[in-house]
Amino acid sequence: MIYLMTIAAAVSLFVLYKFLPTRKIFLVICTVLLVVFSVSAFIHTRQSQQKEISRAQLEELQARQKIFAEWYADYQKDIDRLDRNWQLYHNILDKLDDMNAENFNAEALWLRLKELEGESIDEQLKMHMLAPPAGLDIESRKLVETVIRKTQRYVDAQTQAISMSATESNPAAQKDLETLRARLNDIMIRESPEGLFTAQEISAIRSILGD
User: What's the pTM?
Assistant: First the structure.
């Protein structure tokens, strides 16, 4: 576009040079055209630079969106496993409430809780190895760190409750069913973690990333 305008201007100047009555007028017109073309070229260059910057910023934002989306998908799988462990824990205690002295198997209860304890400890270790993904902006990274700390506190309390219950149910302690039931229910009530509330942080991250 600029190239065509330059050619048109050159032709116009040639015509003006031939037909204008004085060279002074011609020089004034040349000066005006030079200013106009200089301003036009400057504006065009700035617009091109802004488009390049905007494209680079968009690509960077999309890259951050992908980084967070992949991290969050893996994080959600971990949370699903934590939820599964906690549901299994409650199921075990619920079944204990339905038992009587005749069908109660202390060894089976203990083995189920010990197995669940091992799975919970595995998840606990995994949560304490979590870190924000590389490539996020500083603000998003801080929010991810808050999510991780909340999750670590949650899994610590969850594992504590399950481990204490497994220890309490050891058949070597020789508790009667009613005593064991009361002790396990007390542990579950006292040691249960508070809810894992991370929606505010996740929403803030998505807002920053324009997701």
Answer: 0.73
